[in-house]
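Deliverable D4.2, example record:
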Amino acid sequence: MANNPFYSPQAAVGPHEYNRPMLPCIVPPTRLRNKPDRIGAAAFLSRLPFWLAYLMLSAVAAGAALAASEGLGFSSSVTPGLVAHYAAKFGPEVRPRISRWQEFVRSVPPERRHSGGELQLLGPVNTFFNRLPFVTDLAHWGVEDYWATPAEAVSSNGADCEDFSIAKYFALKELGVPIQRLRITYVKALRLNQAHMVLAYYPEPNAVPLILDNLQDRVEPASARTDLVPVYSFNDEDVLIAHQGRRATSAGSALQIRLWRGLIDKLEMELHY
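Output generated by the structure prediction step:
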């Protein structure tokens, strides 16, 4: 990595950089073309080694296991009290929205919830949540950076890239995908020239990950997403930080991320309605 001349210093962050506001998703996304434009293709491809190397390291890095409580963020954990709470806040359409989410999860055949069927879950999960309208945090919540719970995003009928990634992460967990195969990944979207967030799925520890992205319904391997440059990634277990010229390293528990910790707190509170 140290000898990679195409490594971008913009992709490196310090130990606590992930707690600074980076204002992702401030531009409503447009659907991406199938291929990069010809002028930019070389620049995109030059970044591929770091993108792949970083995400593959993400899959095998170990950290202190601080998994979230069982059932947090699951559609099956939504209580009647929570539905009533969000209906009072967001309107009567909350009930059918929550029902569609729960029906979607229940509709997945049992055979797809095992290791051999996981790949068949990615496209439907990506597409289901991508149907939510894109809304910036400032327009939706009145603040510059807000991470919504899946129930909040579904109930309010709006999400930005972080909310899409979080909802997909918890949906795949609910469907039985091990968290070791999932990493919420903060990236720079080169075509949009802004920060962005996606969900990476690793079929095997050393495999090229597959990317679930609200910019497109098609799930593609990272090798095809040369428009994305990773900054950091995390799951319930740890955070991995990219460093200029050297290997990505674990920064410990994901609970060090202020917005993730706040999200977990909200998920805990949702269980008590």
